[in-house]
Amino acid sequence: MRHLSLGYLSIMDVTPAEMVSVAAQTGYQGISLAAGESFLPAGMEMGLRLHSVIEDAALRRETVTRARDTGVSLDQMEGFILSPVLSLERCRMAMDITAEMGIPQVATFDAETDSVRASEYLEALCEMAAERDLKICIEFHSRSKLRSIAAAAKLASEGRYRGLKILIDALHLARGGETPADVAQVPPALIDCVQFCDGPLLSPGGKAYGYEAMFERQVPGAGELPLVALLKSIPQEAFIYLEVPQRAAREQGLSAIERAQRAMDGMRSVIAAAG
Fold it and tell me: Model confidence over 209-222: pLDDT tens digits?
C-alpha cells in the first residue's frame, strides 16, 4: 500500500497541529512540516506565512501530541535550503528538534549561487542528518543549480554526500521538460519520496510559474501531467506527498479539510488508474 502524506503547502493556512487532525480525518498516513519562513533565503518568501514547530515549542508539543493520539506520522521537515544565508548552526538546532519530534527525514534544495559553497553546505547537512539517524533528500528544480533528475541522481551517487536521496516534484519534473521515462532511468534506491499534484502540461513561465508552484496547483487527475505513468515509474516504498496548494479555493471559502479531501480523492483516482 502506498504511504500518502499531506504536504504542508496544501493547507499552509492551518498550524501543523491542526494539519495532523485534518490528515487524520481525510485518510492520510502522515504529514510534512516546514522549518519556517526564517529559514527561507531572501526572495523566496513570496508572501508565505509558515507556522514553525522549530521556533514555537508549544506548537511543537501540541503537534507531537496530536500525532501520537491520531496515529498520523510526522514524515518530513522541509526547509533546509542551500543558500548564501544558510546558517549551519541553526540547521544543527533544527535537526536536533526534528529528531526529538520523531520526524525521520529532512529535505533540501539548492538555491546557492556559489557551487563550491553549495557542495560544502550539502556535505555538512548530510553529515548532520546521518549523525541524528535522519534521512535526507534533495529536490531538483529547473530554476535551481540542480536542474534535472539526472543531475540529482549523479549527485546522490557520488559518495561525497552521505545518505543523500532524491525528492521528485511532479510539477517541477514536467516544467523542466522531463518525463516519467527519465525517472525510470534512475536507480530506484535513490528515489525516496515524490510530491504529487497536477496542472497544465505547458508552463505558464516567468513569475507565473513561481506562483503556480507555491499557491495554485491542481489536484491529481484534474490536469494534464502524466501522473499515472509517474506513479508506475517510482518504487513502491517511496513516500507520496500531496503538494496541492489552492489559494483561490481557500479564498472562496473551501475549508482545509475540503481541500485536503479533494487532493486525496484525486490521488486515489490516479492510484486506481495505475492498477
Answer: 888 998 999 999 99
Pair 245, 9: CB distance under 8 Å: yes
Q: In whole angstroms, what is the distance from residue 186 CA to residue 125 CA?
A: 23
Strands 191-196 vs 4-6: parallel, antiparallel or unpaired: unpaired
Cα 273 from Cα 222, distance rounded (Å): 13
CA distances from 146 to 75, 141, 177, 202, 243 (A): 24, 6, 14, 21, 20
The Cα–Cα gap between 272 and 264 comes to 12
Contact (Cβ atoms closer than 8 angstroms) between residue 218 and residue 249: no
What is the span of the domain harbouring residue 112?
Answer: 4-274
Number of compact structural domains in the chain: 1
Confidence of residue 71 (pLDDT cuts 50, 70, 90): very high
User: Angle, to 10 degrees, between the axis of helix 57-70 and the axis of helix 16-26?
Assistant: 20
- Domain at 102, CATH number: 3.20.20.150
